[in-house]
Specification:
Length: 222
């Protein structure tokens, strides 16, 4: 009997861990854009997994099923809402250098360093802040989200310096969003330094891609 209880607990832990890894990971480089039309379905799947996991934690199978159904509905709504927000954001930003990815449960907006900062600087270039103002307007239009602002660097120079620079750049971007009307309590800024490259640091082109700020837009649970 004890063995069955232990196995049930292990399975529950596995489901819960899998669900929250899918829904809450803060490494944007791991996510690919969902094909057009799949975001509502993907949101439903992730929401359903989280609902089932929550029900299993209570030890009630019926509750797990009910929460799974509710979670799937909420996830589908979130996925559909992200589709709308993505379309509006693409229209308002209109910058081919800005990469927008919709994974079905989040939007990831990647801003290359070169359109925001000079080398070794955390001071935003004033003439290139229009993209951030457009983003701020979009975030106000869709207020039921939490936003992570994550700074990244290449691996040139001291790792500790790169970490500090990535934090400073994330905070600079956050400051502009707040100045343009986004509520500070929706924003979380941090840096990853050189720890999450999206390309090889062995080439100039790869290093250029790694110097970036990722803005991760996450729908709040309803």
């Amino acid at each position: 009997m004890m063995r069955l209880v232990t196995m049930h607990k292990k399975m529950t832990t596995l489901v819960v861990t899998s669900a929250f890894l899918m829904a809450g990971c803060t490494d944007p480089s791991r996510f690919q854009s969902a094909p057009a039309g799949d975001n509502t379905k993907q949101g439903a799947i992730i929401g359903g997994m989280i609902g089932v996991a929550s029900g299993l934690l209570s030890g009630d199978k019926d509750k797990a099923v009910k929460r799974g159904i509710i979670g799937a509905g909420v996830g589908a709504i979130a996925g559909n809402q992200l589709d709308k927000q993505e379309a509006d954001l693409r229209r308002s930003m209109g910058n081919d250098n800005v990469i927008i990815r919709n994974t079905g449960d989040r939007l990831i907006v990647t801003l290359p360093q070169d359109i925001l900062f000079a080398t070794d600087s955390a001071t935003l270039r004033y003439d290139l802040q229009s993209d951030l103002r457009a983003l701020a307007a979009n975030l106000q239009q869709y207020p039921m989200t939490t936003v992570q602002i994550i700074g990244h660097t290449d691996n040139v120079g001291d790792a500790a310096y790169n970490q500090s620079l990535s934090v400073a750049r994330a905070e600079s971007v956050t400051g502009v969003l707040v100045q343009n009307g986004v509520a500070p309590n929706r924003l979380v800024a941090f840096g990853r330094g050189e720890d999450q490259p999206i390309a090889s640091n062995l080439t100039a082109e790869g290093r250029q891609q790694n110097r970036r700020v990722d803005i991760v837009i996450l729908p709040n649970a309803q």
